[in-house]
Amino acid sequence: MGQLVAAPTDEPGEVAVELAVPAVAAGATVPFSVRGSQPGQELTLTLESAAARLRTAAVVELGSFTADADGLVEGAVRIPAATAPGAYTLSVVIDGESVASAQIAVTAAAGDPREGAPGAGGLPTTGAASMGPLAALALLLLLAGAAMRARRNGAGAA
C-alpha cells in the first residue's frame, strides 16, 4: 500500500495504522489501512497538529469506519483544505481512546496564497512593503518645504 509511516507492531491483535504517503497537501486525500481491530468494530480517524498538543486545540475528526471480518479497514480520508501546513498526528480512536497513530506532514494546498508569500506560515502581512513610496513622498515634501524656506530667507535678505 505504499510507504509505511507508522511503526508495525509485533503484538497480535494490537491495532496499527499505515499511511500510503508521509506528506499531503491540505485538501487532498490520504489512503490508509488499519489492521488489528476486532471484526465489525467502529473506529474514527482524527487529525491533530503536533504543535496543538502543547496547548489546548481542537482535534479534527476525519471520518468513521467499520472493520471488516478480518479486522481490517482500508480507505482514504480528506485533509481539510483550511489545514495549516505543519506536522500532524493521524490517530485511530476506538471507544474514545487513541489506540494507534502515525505522523504526517501537511503542506500548503496548490495555489494557497500563504505559500511563499509575505506573511506565509500564518503570519499576517502588515503592509510594511508599501512604506517605500510613502517615505519617498515625505522626503520630497520635506525638501520642497526646505527649498521654499531658503527662497524666502534669500528674498528677505536682498
TrEMBL record:
Transmembrane listed as a keyword: yes
UniProt keyword terms in alphabetical order: Membrane, Transmembrane, Transmembrane helix
Membrane recorded as keyword: yes
Annotated transmembrane regions: 128-148
Highest taxon of source: Bacteria
Official protein name in the record: LPXTG cell wall anchor domain-containing protein
Organism per entry: Microcella alkalica
